[in-house]
Specification:
The protein has two domains: about 260 residues, Aspartate Aminotransferase, domain 2 (3-Layer(aba) Sandwich); about 130 residues, Aspartate Aminotransferase, domain 1 (Alpha-Beta Complex), CATH 3.90.1150. It contains 15 helices and twelve strands. It is globular.
Length: about 525
């Protein structure tokens, strides 16, 4: 075990430092809101008065000033650079968010995505001018279909949840073609599933029926059989599941579903654990979304730009939505409308105005081609190895609900904190003081005070050891009775403990000028 070095400060140095006149702490600069440092009455640029023109806004033109604060160019640059320095990102440290797969984004991928032929194209360009982009989409589709063992693909979904909607819409279309859309209205969802699973099913008009997990965290065939009936349309199953465990009976579950005329939707959020090792199609999946920002390293977070392609089995291939790419001789054509689909196809409709997120397609294919099949397989193996290294090194100080093993992420519960006066949230906040983004907490809901850690394959043993040692030190401090260290955390962040419940329920979305007292 690697112990963190202990630094004993003299009493005078250990005391909290006196506040500075500016509020800054050396390079930690206190940065106000832009409205507090600028003024709506001034501007950093000069514009000539526009000539009188006839409005074409039909009465929707602005009647008041926009109200933006005016800053000079140096002030503007400093403001946003200072804000950026407060960000935590995968480029500054390990991002151990379980269920999120926050992995390194290789710069080679970024370079490829910025090539003019990909970065500068427009979705309304004539097909003959974007043949290279369509060829790339075709090649990306080939890789994804090969890795998943599926028969058809939709590239247009914009994210994982959008992909779920696509896959479940294809299932709904298949049921309509079978004349069973009105009778099969139930979707089975394990209690440990991502929240988007039941939300997607409900949004499409299905009723959700929960499937309880076994004591070992997996779903049993018997539990699925007990939940089946003539009213069941599909089951949405994540594999590996949200507890970080591979579903060992998934093939039997798929067979039981198919015997009952039920489709299996596989949530692909955790594909990073098995890509190159096993194909979901071989396990019986009928539909699966793929988070390109997880498994294939395209940028994650910030609300986009996202991409969540969906692969479909032979049973659902005909219902893939438009648009999709079709090769005709040496040329590529986009099938934009259902009426233009080839014979045998019955697209359920259109999910988005255009064809998908080209920048994400380029990045994902660059990742696949630079790694190759063996590299993708090794990435999966390394992700599982790293998670199990974290599990093994923390097993004596943290508590695990399912200690037998883990896939790409390891799950801990809060039993080790009982009697300490420290909660899971307190523990996570204290990690911020140590310079780490906390792990996912309180999810999955099937485990009390859950702490879900996913290191991904990006992390070296050195970075893992530093993170693990910090977690160990915090666990020992909590057990030693140092509760104040946790309940007051974070103490060293730009802002200390915030009222997150109030912020969620009563968000302030626009600047309110303080009234003088």
């Amino acid at each position: 075990m690697v112990e963190m070095p202990k630094v004993i400060l003299p009493a005078a140095e250990a005391a909290a430092p006196a506040p500075t006149f500016t509020g800054n702490r050396a390079l930690q600069i206190e940065e106000p809101l832009i409205f507090e440092i600028g003024s709506a009455e001034t501007s950093g640029v000069d514009f000539e008065e526009p000539a009188e023109t006839e409005t074409r806004l039909g009465g929707l033109e602005r009647t008041d000033a926009i109200g933006l604060a005016g800053l000079s160019e140096p002030e503007t640059m400093r403001h946003y650079v200072r804000l950026s320095q407060k960000n935590y990102s995968i480029d500054t440290g390990i991002f151990p968010l379980g269920s999120c797969t926050m992995k390194h984004n290789p710069r080679l991928n970024e370079k490829m995505a910025r090539l003019p032929g990909f970065a500068d194209i427009h979705p309304l360009q004539p097909e003959k001018t974007v043949q290279g982009a369509l060829a790339l989409m075709t090649e990306l589709s080939r890789w994804l279909l090969e890795l998943t063992g599926m028969h058809a693909i939709a590239l247009s979904p914009k994210a994982g949840a959008h992909g779920e909607f696509c896959g479940m819409a294809a299932i709904k279309a298949a049921l309509e073609a079978r004349g069973e859309a009105e009778t099969r209205r139930v979707v089975l969802v394990p209690v440990s599933a991502h929240g988007t699973n039941p939300a997607t099913a409900a949004h499409l008009g299905f009723t959700v029926r929960a499937v309880e997990a076994e004591p070992d965290g997996t779903v049993s065939v018997d539990a699925v059989r007990a939940a089946l009936g003539p009213d069941v349309a599909a089951m949405m199953l994540t594999n590996p599941n949200t507890c970080g465990l591979f579903e060992p009976h998934i093939r039997e579950i798929a067979d039981a579903l198919h015997e009952a005329g039920v489709y299996l939707y596989c949530d692909g959020a955790n594909f990073n654990a098995i890509a190159g090792k096993v194909r979901p199609g071989d396990l019986g999946a009928d539909a699966m979304h793929i988070n390109l920002h997880k498994t294939f390293s395209t940028p994650h977070g910030g609300g986009g730009p996202g991409a969540g392609p969906v692969v479909l089995s032979e049973a659902l291939a005909a219902y893939a939505p438009v648009p999709f790419v079709r090769r005709e001789g040496d040329a590529f054509r986009l099938v934009e409308h259902a009426d233009d689909a080839p014979e045998g196809a019955a697209p359920f409709g259109r999910l988005a105005a255009f064809h998908g997120q080209m920048g994400m397609f380029v990045r994902a294919l660059a990742y696949m081609m630079s790694h190759g099949a063996d590299g993708i397989r090794q990435a999966s193996e390394d992700a599982v190895l790293n998670a199990n290294y974290v599990r093994a090194r923390l097993a004596d100080v943290l508590t695990q609900p399912f200690p037998e093993g883990a896939m790409h992420e390891v799950l801990f519960d809060d039993r080790f904190l009982k009697g300490t006066g420290v909660s899971t949230l307190d523990f996570a906040k204290a990690l911020i003081d140590e310079g780490f983004h906390p792990m996912t907490v309180y999810f999955p809901l099937v485990v009390s005070g859950a702490m879900l850690i996913e290191p991904t394959e990006s992390e070296s043993k050195q970075s893992l050891d530093q993170f693990i040692d910090a977690v160990r030190a915090l666990a020992l401090a909590a057990k030693a009775g140092d509760a104040v260290r946790f309940t007051e955390a974070p103490r060293f962040a730009p802002r200390s403990r915030l009222d997150e419940t109030r912020a969620a329920r009563d968000p302030v979305l626009s600047y309110r000028e303080k009234t003088p007292e």
